[in-house]
Design brief:
Distance between the termini: 39 Å
Structural class: alpha+beta
CATH topology: Aminopeptidase
CATH architecture: 3-Layer(aba) Sandwich
Number of domains: 1
Largest sheet: 8 strands, mixed
Number of strands: 8
Strand content: 25-35%
Order of helices and strands: EHHEEEHEHEEEH
CATH class: Alpha Beta
Oligomer: single chain
Length: about 180
């Protein structure tokens, strides 16, 4: 059975395994310093949350989300290589969909390599829509460039107005630009 465990403090016993999963899953230009995922920032506009993904009480992934009043941003979602292609990612998305009363938003790289194509296909199979508006994830480090990405949304594609609202919120609260 798949479950999510909220990481409520910086000394949580699952933190080392979650950090290891995070560090291995994402390229340097797409990840922030892990400690910033632990900040548990809560503002009037949003709340940052970090979860361990458990399969029968064994850590098999990590999830970082930012909850806004009008949408939930799936910041990072990663499953360990040994547990990939077993439907765990699908089950995690189903849990999030069931819990959320607002649209789900995520970023995905353009389909330039097999892995990015498979990632987009995975989200499309799970009901997400690729929004075709131009979008760049801001540079996360001093010596990296902004990364061209797509914003994907569930349960429907975004209007241009909604896309701009999402983009502004992410740039302001997540990327601080």
């Amino acid at each position: 059975m798949i479950s999510l465990e909220f990481i409520s403090h910086n000394n949580h016993p699952l933190l080392p395994s979650i950090q290891s999963i995070y560090e291995e899953a994402f390229p340097p230009e797409e990840k922030v310093d892990f400690s910033s995922l632990l900040s548990h920032k809560f503002t009037d506009d949003c709340a940052f949350k970090l979860y361990a993904i458990l399969d029968k009480n064994e850590t098999c992934g990590m999830l970082s989300i930012v909850e806004y009043t009008s949408f939930v941003f799936i910041y990072y979602l990663a499953i360990t290589p040994a547990k990939q292609r077993l439907g765990i990612g699908n089950k995690v998305l189903e849990l999030i969909k069931k819990e959320s009363t607002t649209p789900l938003i995520l970023e995905v790289e353009h389909a330039t390599q097999d892995i990015s194509k498979r990632r987009i296909e995975f989200y499309v199979r799970n009901g997400f829509h690729v929004n075709q508006y131009p979008y760049f994830q801001p540079a996360l480090h001093q010596h990296t460039d902004a990364v061209p990405m797509h914003i994907m949304s569930y349960p429907h594609a975004l209007s241009e107005e909604d896309f701009l609202t999402v983009k502004t919120a992410l740039y302001e609260h997540v990327y601080c630009v």
